[in-house]
Design goal:
β1 and β2 form a beta hairpin. The chain has about 200 residues and is an alpha/beta fold.
């Protein structure tokens, strides 16, 4: 399984990192202690995690949303319900319309989709696949219930695993859920116990 990890191009999101996907953007947003990744592909927008409300959402993500003139987000994926990943969701709902909110636990929203297995949807000129680690029978710690998000947008692939630890990552590799990608967002804020 080492060949899979070695073939992944590692990208660490520090501050706001912009990676052009053939005139489209993959933006790692500095939300302080938390996560938020914005993907823009033509007229389509995807947000993976919202970071905490303050300073994350209000100081970093909201200005970015305003800068790009975003008033509709096709999908928001909450990898798990820890505050540093979901904290900005209520404020986000006040400023933009959202097509679907995906998460691993119930949310009282009419546009919520509970992910307890695997879901795939079209996004721009590509797709996103969201996998629940429940497929692997992982112990139910909050971090290890993080959704695995694998997207291929405009022929550029990227992987986000929330705060999952190495045990989830290795099971996902062995099961074929994690395959080689162009960009990897380090799990659990780059914690040494997260990526193998």
């Amino acid at each position: 399984y080492l060949y899979v990890i070695l073939s992944i191009q590692l990208i660490v999101f520090i501050g706001v990192q912009l990676i052009s996907i053939n005139q489209h953007l993959l933006v790692g947003v500095d939300v302080g202690q938390g996560d938020a990744t914005l993907v823009i592909s033509g007229n389509h927008v995807l947000l993976i995690d919202t970071g905490p409300v303050y300073p994350g959402f209000r100081r970093s993500l909201l200005p970015l949303i305003n800068y790009y003139g975003i008033n509709f987000i096709d999908a928001v994926i909450i990898t798990h319900h820890d505050y540093d990943h979901i904290g900005g969701l209520d404020d986000l709902l006040e400023v933009v319309d959202i097509g679907t909110v995906f998460s691993p636990s119930y949310l009282p929203l009419s546009n919520h989709h509970l992910v307890d297995s695997q879901v795939q949807f079209s996004f721009g000129k590509g797709f996103c696949r969201i996998t629940s680690p429940q497929l692997f029978m992982i112990p139910k710690t909050t971090n290890n219930q993080s959704l695995i998000v694998d997207c291929d947008v405009n022929d550029t692939s990227f992987l986000i695993t929330g705060d999952s630890d190495q045990s989830v990552e290795l099971l996902a590799i062995r099961s074929g859920v994690i395959t080689p990608v162009d960009a990897l967002k380090l799990a659990h804020h780059g914690s040494r116990s997260s990526n193998s």
